[in-house]
């Protein structure tokens, strides 16, 4: 699996974590379920923020909608309450309801009081449209596929490229997909980690800018493959940011906003038809569902030090997108549509 640093492409000056992945954040796990069958190139990717029951032990979280052309679920409540209470599922646009059902069924099985003695649950599912390479009308993803992605979640290195939700994605005219990156930060003499996972399905062909300033040209192997090159930007990108830095939801939203700077460095301008969303959470503190205290102690980052995670978010986002483009192989999908690999263009 090729990554940006294999090509000498480094984003920023902060050091990466040991795996250069969102799973460098302790407790965070990622799993994939990939479907490749006939004209179908799709899947689910699951991100599990900690090993416990997220409904019982919620995490501070926030959402930044960079451009809101999307069909995700759960984001309104995350924005209002500043809390995450389920794992996160990523899939294609028409699988959001399927992911919703899977997360609800898991939460109900683990918490018999949901909908009885306590409230309901807020599942978070986000999406990109993989319809260029996959038959999205097939509605191929099932609840069992979502459960399989959740069950496959591990804390080690994350498979990248055309896997899971990234199986049918495109970015900047190349084969897109899913990938990750991380950065290490030192605060008060202690090391912390900030990691991102991206589902890259955005950017117009010809707009991509590499960290060294090059603008790789998309090979036009067949005219019909690139009939949409000059079309309006109608892709999407989902960014999930995790960190063990103690942060409140307002600070997480500010940091999530800086993921957009990483996209801009790549040449993206967040077109009218692009769904560009960042969701951020911190694992540093857990919020008990049945908390009884009136007042709660909180340790949070000094706002005068927030530039450091700002930079980490931008740089890790930029590198994660490049990792997605470089890990994904040349792919032919629905109706013979094709996307070339950036790694092939760069000689990898």
From TrEMBL:
Stretches assigned to coiled coil: none
Record's keyword terms, sorted: Aminopeptidase, Hydrolase, Protease
Keyword Signal: no
MF term (GO), any: aminopeptidase activity
Domain of life: Bacteria
Family matches, as Pfam families: Peptidase_S58 (PF03576)
Claim: Coiled coil is one of the keywords in the record: no
PANTHER family, alphabetized: BLR5678 PROTEIN, D-AMINOPEPTIDASE
Protein family membership: Belongs to the peptidase S58 family.
UniProt-recorded name of the protein: Putative D-aminopeptidase
């Amino acid at each position: 699996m090729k990554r940006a640093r294999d090509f000498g492409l480094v984003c920023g000056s902060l050091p990466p974590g040991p795996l250069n992945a969102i799973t460098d954040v302790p407790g965070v796990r990622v799993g994939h379920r990939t479907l490749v069958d006939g004209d179908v190139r799709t899947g689910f990717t699951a991100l599990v923020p900690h090993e416990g029951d997220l409904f019982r032990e919620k995490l501070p979280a926030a959402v930044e909608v960079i451009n809101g052309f999307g069909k995700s679920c759960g984001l309104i409540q995350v924005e209002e309450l500043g809390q995450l209470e389920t794992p996160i599922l990523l899939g294609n646009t028409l699988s959001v309801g399927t992911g919703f059902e899977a997360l609800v069924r898991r939460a109900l099985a683990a918490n018999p009081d949901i909908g009885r003695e306590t409230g309901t649950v807020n599942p978070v599912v986000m999406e990109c449209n993989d319809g260029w390479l996959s038959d999205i009308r097939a509605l191929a993803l099932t609840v069992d596929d979502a459960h399989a992605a959740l069950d496959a979640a591990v804390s080690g290195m994350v498979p990248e490229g055309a896997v899971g939700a990234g199986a049918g994605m495109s970015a900047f005219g190349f084969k897109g997909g899913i990938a990750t990156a991380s950065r290490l930060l030192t605060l008060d003499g202690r090391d912390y980690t900030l990691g991102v996972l991206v589902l890259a399905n955005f950017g117009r062909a010809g707009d991509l800018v590499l960290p060294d300033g090059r603008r790789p040209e998309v090979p036009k192997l067949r005219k019909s493959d690139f009939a949409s090159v000059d079309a309006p930007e109608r892709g999407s990108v989902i960014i999930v940011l995790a960190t063990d830095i103690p942060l409140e939801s307002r600070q997480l939203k500010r940091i999530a906003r800086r993921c957009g700077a990483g996209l801009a460095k790549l040449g993206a301008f967040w077109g009218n038809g692009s769904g560009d969303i960042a969701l951020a959470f911190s694992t540093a503190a857990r919020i008990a569902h049945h908390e009884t205290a009136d007042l709660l102690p909180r340790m949070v980052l000094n706002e005068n030090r927030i530039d450091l995670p700002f930079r980490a978010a931008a740089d890790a986002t930029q590198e994660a997108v490049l990792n997605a483009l470089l890990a994904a192989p040349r792919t032919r999908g629905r109706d013979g549509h094709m996307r070339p690999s950036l790694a092939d263009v760069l000689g990898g």
